[in-house]
Amino acid sequence: MTVPLYLATATTADVPRLTRLVNRAYRGDASRQGWTTEAHLLDGQRIDEDGLREMLAVPGAAILMCLGANDELLGSFYAHATGEKVYLGMLAVEPGRQTNGVGKFLIHAAEDYGRQHGCTTSKMTVISVRAELLAYYARQGYRPTGATEPFPTDPRFGVPRQPLTLLVLEKSLVEAQAPPGPMAG
């Protein structure tokens, strides 16, 4: 059965449910239902409500939400347009809904957000030991730049169980893409 997916832009009223979604997708037992869990790499939460409010307040930034029937929150993705690049981060999909097209829907929507803001390149960072996630983003057209960034040391984003490094990935947004409008997933 296919379910229509809808795009919405988060507001501060969405912060409590976004916090629950992101933490379920990344950490703890619920995250282990999906294939994108970080629970084996980090302890603690992925984000808190204050952190999400800060992200929503950044000029040029938005948290895009994928909604299903009855306004059900299926996933979210952070997009921050600055100059020629849009930074994408914190892709979260409800663990039981992964592999149903929600992630691709949000990636296309975030890339379109960047294009609408004049960006020609999409950038993201991924934990270097996340081979399955790096392969997923490679299938979406993202390539390693050779650059790395240190993993954040703020415990609000989790406490690493081992030393972690972020790989910088980029994708050109110049080629034409279909708009993210409603689609079956």
Automatic annotation (TrEMBL):
Q: Which residues form the N-acetyltransferase domain?
A: 5-165
The record ties this protein, via SUPFAM superfamilies, to: Acyl-CoA N-acyltransferases (Nat)
Instruction: State the UniProt keywords alphabetically.
Output: Acyltransferase, Transferase
* One Pfam family from the record: Acetyltransf_1
Keyword Acyltransferase tagged: yes
PANTHER family from the xrefs? AMINOALKYLPHOSPHONATE N-ACETYLTRANSFERASE-RELATED (PTHR43877:SF2), AMINOALKYLPHOSPHONATE N-ACETYLTRANSFERASE-RELATED-RELATED (PTHR43877)
What is this protein's name? Answer: GNAT family N-acetyltransferase
Organism per entry = Hymenobacter mellowenesis
Q: In the record, what lineage is assigned to the organism producing the protein?
A: Bacteria, Pseudomonadati, Bacteroidota, Cytophagia, Cytophagales
